[in-house]
């Protein structure tokens, strides 16, 4: 019996792998396109010539190969990949600048990043670094963070415990063992499970790239769970796994701390998702030199070189279809008129909810296949961001190129549940989780650009329902009760910062403001103010969902890219772009990137040997 099952599983897998290794289309990673570094451009007006190209019908290129809705990294990254093989792509962005969560803004002379805080897996020889280098022709530079790169801070001011988190596959567990003597076995087992689970993520690529009927067969037969540790561990919550490893509540919190980077509380988070994030930072963490806007700034010229364009202030209000229900373009609202843009392929980086519920005609929204995918997904938690501009250098303010994860206590599930489900006025006084980092301290060009100034970014979560009543107010002048509620969150968060960073005092604060979930909806178009796309809880990682939600939609010529296709964050959205590019170009771009990374590592090794 078991032998028959094993033979069937191997045969089915071999059949699927034939599609995964297919290489019929053009390869954007065929050659190393990195160029010698050019001088960095810091002049804002010069950069805006690239990042803020306003939409006009006359600027739309003719004979487009594809149009992409949304200029986050899932959209820009895919456009760059297609441009690498000569495709003419138009990227449309509703905001007044390109970049999505990679954009920056300036207030009172302070520049703030909105979504890029730190990125992992950027060692020179890693495939992910290779992908980013090729998309920017090697012009995007990365600055490593301090080590320790993260600090977990737990407890009230009178009983605050601090746990530094080091990168390094051996140093990470070694330093944890120093902090938690007697917990060596738990730490070793935690890391073993993280590594084992992460290695199985390749199966997610497989079931998203196989033909749909094969993916469904892999899922229905249960082969996926037998062959992939990722899907084996996916149904287990983070809380369940770590509670089974140790009774030490602070260590449990440290094991769980990075859940804030995908927005699902530990009892609802999949250990599989968590493992991917922990592994992502094991080799270190980096920040883009010159700030997050450098990402879009260096990808856009590659898109333009192939005849494409990236245009902003271009809100797409619907996707166009022909009589055969095939996507054939988009409609952009310009003033009181609609501009129709035709293209043989339409790709949405606007998220699955916006794409299916706002951009499709009603009769297509009602399709069973569309409704099935929507029923599998939930909205993620709304994001709360607070931006602080400070008078003083990083040395004067005690700021470093690292991050702080501050928890009011170690019972994370209980704290976050009470906060999210609580009364908004009460919740504003007791934020249980706060991420604190200084973008200016991470960027070596900052002092040259803004001498004597510093910035701090604070990130947490907030319930969209708390703010929904003001969503239709003018964004720059919402009602006074909205401003009062927002100020309550600001005051609570700022007090935490003042407690943890003694060199920062109130008189150093020159600017402070917050972005609530409805702010996110306005600027980055998220339906419920979520910053990590669709919810990353346990349901997100079922084999059934991952076989169903893929780049190809139930509608011909309409594709999805970005966070909702793969995983959240910069790396996850870029993986979504590669997965979508693989479907369009009929080849496995993930494997192509791995092959080029190996090739460049070998060449670089030989050059160093010389």
Which architecture of the largest domain does the CATH hierarchy give at level 2? 3-Layer(bba) Sandwich
Model regions low in confidence, pLDDT < 50 over at least 5 residues: 1-6, 606-610
Largest beta sheet: strand ordering: 7-6-15-16-17-14-18
CATH homologous superfamily heading of the largest domain:
FAD/NAD(P)-binding domain
Shape: globular
Helical coverage, percent range: 40-55%
CATH class of the largest domain: Alpha Beta
Average pLDDT for all residues? 94
Query: What fold name stands as the CATH topology of the largest domain?
Result: FAD/NAD(P)-binding domain
- Determine Rg (CA atoms, Å): 24 Å
How many helices does DSSP assign?
27
**Content-based structural category:** alpha/beta
């Amino acid at each position: 019996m078991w032998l028959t099952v094993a033979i069937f599983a191997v045969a089915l897998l071999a059949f699927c792998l034939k599609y995964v290794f297919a290489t019929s289309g053009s390869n954007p990673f065929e050659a190393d396109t990195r160029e010698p570094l050019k001088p960095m451009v810091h002049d804002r007006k010069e950069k805006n010539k690239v990042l803020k190209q306003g939409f006009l019908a006359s600027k739309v290129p003719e004979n487009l190969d594809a149009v992409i809705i949304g200029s986050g990294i899932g959209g820009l990254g895919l456009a760059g990949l297609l441009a690498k093989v000569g495709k003419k792509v138009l990227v449309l962005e509703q905001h007044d600048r390109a970049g999505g969560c990679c954009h920056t803004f300036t207030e009172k002379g302070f520049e703030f990043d909105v979504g890029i805080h730190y990125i992992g897996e950027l060692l020179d020889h890693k495939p992910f670094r290779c992908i980013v280098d090729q998309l920017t022709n090697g012009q995007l530079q990365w600055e490593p963070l301090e080590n320790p790169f993260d600090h977990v801070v737990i407890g009230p001011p009178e009983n605050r415990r601090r746990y530094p988190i080091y990168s390094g596959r051996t140093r990470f567990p070694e330093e944890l063992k120093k902090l938690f003597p007697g917990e060596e076995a738990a730490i070793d087992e935690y890391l073993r499970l993280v590594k084992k689970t992460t290695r199985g993520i390749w199966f997610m690529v497989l079931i998203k790239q196989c033909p749909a009927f094969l993916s469904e067969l892999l899922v229905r037969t249960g082969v996926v769970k037998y062959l992939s540790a990722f899907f084996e561990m996916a149904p287990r919550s983070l809380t369940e796994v770590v509670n089974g490893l140790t009774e030490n509540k602070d260590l449990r919190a440290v094991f769980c701390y990075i859940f804030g980077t995908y927005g699902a509380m530990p009892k609802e988070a999949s250990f599989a998702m968590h493992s991917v994030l922990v592994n992502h930072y094991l080799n270190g963490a980096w920040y883009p030199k010159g700030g997050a806007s450098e990402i879009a700034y260096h990808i856009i010229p590659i898109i333009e070189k192939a005849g494409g364009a990236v245009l902003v202030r271009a809100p797409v209000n619907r996707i166009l279809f022909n009589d055969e229900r095939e996507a054939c373009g988009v409609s952009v609202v310009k003033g009181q008129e609609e501009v129709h843009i035709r293209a043989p392929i339409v790709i949405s980086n606007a998220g699955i909810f916006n794409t299916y519920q706002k951009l499709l005609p009603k009769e297509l929204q009602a399709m069973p296949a569309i409704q099935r995918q929507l029923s599998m997904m939930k909205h993620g938690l709304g994001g709360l961001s607070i931006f602080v501009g400070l008078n003083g250098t990083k040395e004067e303010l005690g700021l470093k190129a690292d991050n702080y994860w501050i928890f009011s206590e170690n019972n994370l599930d209980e704290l976050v549940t009470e906060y999210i489900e609580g009364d908004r006025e009460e919740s504003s006084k007791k934020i249980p989780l706060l991420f604190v980092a200084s973008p200016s301290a991470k960027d070596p060009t900052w002092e040259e650009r803004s001498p004597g100034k510093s910035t701090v970014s604070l990130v947490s979560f907030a319930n969209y329902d708390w703010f929904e009543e003001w969503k239709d107010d003018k964004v720059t002048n919402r009602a006074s009760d909205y401003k009062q509620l927002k100020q309550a969150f600001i005051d609570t968060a700022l007090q935490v910062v003042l407690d943890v960073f003694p060199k920062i005092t109130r008189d150093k604060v020159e600017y402070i403001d917050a972005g609530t979930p409805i702010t996110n909806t306005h600027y980055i178009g998220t339906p419920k103010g979520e910053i990590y796309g669709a919810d990353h809880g346990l349901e997100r990682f079922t084999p059934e969902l991952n076989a169903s939600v893929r780049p190809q939609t139930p509608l011909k010529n309409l594709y999805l890219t970005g966070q909702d296709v793969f995983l959240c964050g910069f790396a996850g959205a870029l993986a979504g772009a590669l997965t979508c590019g693989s479907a369009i170009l009929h080849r496995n771009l993930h494997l192509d990137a791995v092959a080029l990374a190996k090739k460049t590592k070998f060449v670089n090794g030989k050059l160093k040997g010389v």
